[in-house]
UniProtKB/TrEMBL annotation:
This protein's UniProt keywords: Aminotransferase, Pyridoxal phosphate, Transferase
InterPro entries in the cross-refs: 4NH2But_aminotransferase_bac (IPR004632), Aminotrans_3 (IPR005814), Aminotrans_3_PPA_site (IPR049704), Class-III_PLP-dep_AT (IPR050103), PyrdxlP-dep_Trfase (IPR015424), PyrdxlP-dep_Trfase_major (IPR015421), PyrdxlP-dep_Trfase_small (IPR015422)
Metabolic or biological pathway, per its Swiss-Prot or TrEMBL entry: Amino-acid degradation; 4-aminobutanoate degradation
Entry's family note: Belongs to the class-III pyridoxal-phosphate-dependent aminotransferase family.
EC primary class: transferase
The protein's required cofactors: pyridoxal 5'-phosphate
Molecular function in Gene Ontology: (S)-3-amino-2-methylpropionate transaminase activity; 4-aminobutyrate:2-oxoglutarate transaminase activity; identical protein binding; pyridoxal phosphate binding
NCBIfam families from the UniProt entry: GABAtrnsam, PRK06918.1
PANTHER family: AMINOTRANSFERASE CLASS III, LEUCINE_METHIONINE RACEMASE
Name this polypeptide is given: (S)-3-amino-2-methylpropionate transaminase
A Gene Ontology BP annotation from the UniProt entry: gamma-aminobutyric acid metabolic process
Length: 451
């Protein structure tokens, strides 16, 4: 089938990409992974063009970094303007206004009517590390509670906080102390015979038991939760669970941290995913789509908690760089001007409708789930046993690549297909991308039947 936007004219990798791959193999360690075996030449909106002239529809968005689209004109214009003025002075040396303006806007936009302050850093992992530092400083406690299947980064502390052993933790120990993993709500894998309401109470009771058997709440500085798990498989918890955990934190003086690094900036149909659960976090970590591709992250939190650290205890050389701040300000303008929250909601409805139709057709689909435009399919070998089917996902991703669609796998067992298309994607591009997923599934299942 021919496509209007996706156009793969060569094998993958193409001639130029092959040359670059050889250079990559010589000079870049294999520990730095890559998905599709080609190299980008240019990018615009939701379309990527590689060095061999192949065009792809992007359903990965640099792992959720490009909600505002590739090379968004507003962002490009802001960066050009900033480069002409100054590139970097180090906020710790000579301050600059974009940092203050961005902090002010995010403080006003974040959930809750309390006073807030904002700290800027470089990466999502740094944001999580600093949220933990701030919580420990404020509470004078050491313990950090995270959740099964969670992902928070690749540094020593955030790697410890992350659940998946391979590839993130294997042979990289010893790990950071005082990190504890609690059970997370997972509706699809709710025990058989248990109602949704019973499961809510069961998993909350498990959390309370965890605070008796694994770590005393008096020793816990922070509970760090992804409102929707990203790398863990786009697992959407119940409102009862999230509210219950937040209330337990409040009862015990534990700082509740919402990790919004992948879920933030309109991905779920609201500016922040935690808003869907009617919970006001004490701290929030943000990054990825905040900067439309520029490295910037942040911690947004209650002023009394953020103020706990003394001068010099937070920050970093490039933390909250002028370019990152200007990009983020342009993104906030775009969210408001183009109503990306609404776009996220509409895209999610269209994707879920198509995914549900696919689930009616293919019995290897165990679950379809999502929140806004953060949608996924979980593949299984058998709907009764729910045994994960990692192999089929790898085949589908590969078949999609060959047809000109970039997409990603996820989940503890690698059996989840997730989509993170830019929210500026056109209706035609979205439909074509979903058509390719459908064709890739057909090809993958046909190949499975042959073997």
């Amino acid at each position: 089938m021919s496509y209007k936007f996706a156009n793969v004219k060569t094998e993958l990798p193409g001639p130029k990409a092959k040359e670059l791959l050889e250079r990559r193999k010589q000079y870049v360690p294999k520990g730095v992974s890559n998905g599709i075996p080609t190299f980008v030449e240019k990018a615009q909106g939701a379309i990527l063009t590689d060095v061999d002239g192949n065009t792809f529809i992007d359903f990965a968005g640099a792992i959720g970094t490009i909600n505002a689209g590739h090379c968004a004109p507003e962002v490009v214009e802001a960066l050009h303007d900033q480069v002409d003025k100054y590139i970097h002075t180090g906020f710790n040396v000579m301050m600059y206004e974009p940092y203050i303006e961005l902090a002010e806007r995010l403080a006003k936009l974040a959930p809750g009517d309390h006073e807030k302050q904002v700290l800027f850093l470089n990466s999502g992992a740094e944001a999580v590390e600093n949220a933990v530092k701030i919580a420990r400083k404020y509470t004078k406690r050491q313990g950090v509670v995270v959740f099964s299947r969670g992902f928070h980064g690749r540094t020593l502390l955030t790697m410890t906080m992350t659940s998946k052993v391979k590839p993130y933790k294997f042979e990289f120990g010893p790990f950071a102390p005082e990190v504890y993993k609690a059970p997370y709500h997972y509706e699809y894998r709710r025990p058989e015979g248990m109602s949704a309401e019973q499961y809510d109470q069961y998993i909350l009771n498990e959390f309370k038991t965890f605070l008796q058997g694994d770590v005393a709440p008096e020793n816990v500085a922070a509970v760090v939760m992804e409102p929707v798990q990203g790398e863990g498989g786009f697992v959407v918890p119940s409102k009862t669970f999230v509210q219950g955990v937040a209330e337990i934190c409040k009862q015990h003086g534990i700082v509740f941290v919402a990790d919004e690094i992948q879920t933030g900036f309109s991905r779920t149909g609201k500016l922040f995913a935690i808003e869907h659960f009617d919970v006001v976090p004490d701290l929030m970590t943000v990054s990825k789509s905040m900067g439309a591709g520029l490295p910037i992250s942040g911690v947004i939190g209650r002023k009394e908690i953020m103020e706990a650290a003394n001068p010099g205890e937070l920050g970093g050389t490039y933390a909250g760089s002028p370019l990152g701040c200007r990009a983020a300000l342009a993104v906030l303008d775009m969210i408001e001007k183009h109503d990306l929250n609404e776009k996220g909601r509409i895209i999610g409805e269209k994707v879920m409708d198509r995914f549900n139709r696919l689930a009616d057709k293919y019995d290897i689909i165990g679950d379809v789930r999502g929140l806004g435009a953060m949608c996924a399919i979980e593949f299984v070998k058998d709907r009764q046993t729910k045994e994960p089917n990692k192999e089929i996902v790898g085949t589908i991703v590969n078949e999609a690549n060959k047809r000109g669609l970039i997409t990603l796998s996820a989940g503890l067992f690698g059996n989840v297909l997730r989509v993170l298309m830019p929210l500026v994607i056109t209706d035609e591009q979205l439909e074509e991308g979903l058509d390719i997923i459908e064709e890739a599934m057909e090809a993958a299942t046909s190949a499975l039947q042959v073997h």
